[in-house]
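Bug report

Summary: structure tokens for NADH-quinone oxidoreductase subunit D differ between web form and batch submission.
Environment: batch mode, default settings.
Steps: 1) Submit the sequence below via batch. 2) Compare with the web form result.

Sequence submitted:
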Amino acid sequence: MSTTEQPAVTAQQPWSHANVGQTTAGEQEMKPRSETTAEELMREIGSVLRMSEAEAAQLGDLPDDPDDDQTMIINMGPQHPSTHGVLRLMLELQGETVLRCKPIIGYLHTGMEKTGEQLTFMQGGTNVTRMDYLSPFNNELAFSMATEKLLGIDGDIPERAVWMRMLLSELNRMSSHLLFLATNGMDLGAVSMMIYGWREREEVLRFFQKVTGLRMNHNFIRPGGLAADLPPGWRDDVLRLLDLIPERLEEYDILMTGQPIWRERLQGVGVITPDEAIALGANGPILRSTGVPWDLRRDMPYLKYDEVDFDVIVGTYGDAYDRYAIRLNEVRESMKIVRQILDRMPQGDYRIQDKKVTPPPRARIDESMEALIHHFKIFTEGFKVPEGEVYVGIESPRGEIGCYIASDGSPTPYRMHMRAPSFANIQCLPHMLRGGLVADAVAIISSTDPVLGDVDR
């Protein structure tokens, strides 16, 4: 359309702009989104349903058009059992086919990042460990490593503390993936798998309880090292786990991996391409399922991961089956890493001997007034961290979990932000669901393994 054919732009229209006449679509293209009607929004294309609840409600008032393709918008969640918490999806359906989807989050938001700015660096671990509550050690590790980098002590952490951190991180990866296998089975009707997955995870949690005193939310990995050394008999406990779980994984393979019904439910379902996954910031098993071999433990090694041998498991098709198979086999790779850690665990301190960062040993508090005062001050006032900003990312069971901290030199962070893998991964849902059946939505949501505490911080 030539410029002369464009409709006249009047001064009364608030969205008027001198450039309107130069666009190919004229007024419609330059119209603010706030003035777009619900009918126009329904004609949009793409995987994401960009429509508010109020705009969706307006559609109910419109008369039916027999010549128009009829679609409907339904809610899934936030109390739906397959959403693994309080995730809500607005689905636009044509028959049983999902056309577009809009994930709605925030139901579990408690302002934990903002709360972290009121807590000292000493207290921060109690806060971040509750974000991804299925992977608490990894949250604590990212926070502690970021704090240590600001303090300039990241190269001084004792060897034993580093290997202990790796041991707990890998066991945590195993417990998290075992829970995924349980819930994934439950979502698809394999109720026996739910029981078996919970059973094996419980064995790992018992070890965590013996080491830290808690099954979850440990606050055990702290700036400067760890809260305590490993208890007597820890090696036998870990060896028992390493002997117990491989047989159970073989049973999982029989129960699910080669099962025709299981394959039919997952293969070719919820496909995402490598380009889509990278563009959406997805990582962890979701990105690796598309064939991209990206794992921070190998590509940007931290702790002692560059000194252990393990494989990065990748998929081929980017579907729900690949994501299931990757997590199952990552349990095996974690066990391989844990065996190497057992062989290489050195003796020595489990935390840095720096009175400005770490508290005195518990036994000395009963003997020394100085130690008692030191203990009191470090837990009530914390320690000051030099000015600066830092970002540290590690590979959690769900992908890259990162901690950004800006410090103004006080004992509390000026700003803290966690790069949550579940938040990025959940953005893939509209692209995975598009064109699929609504009955497969449960399998697709389950395959992303979201933790809503990680999404709503």
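Above is the batch result. After comparison, the two runs are identical; trailing whitespace caused the diff. Strands lie at 72-76, 88-94, 97-104, 221-222, 225-226, 388-396, 399-407, 415-419. The first strand starts at residue 72 and ends at 76.
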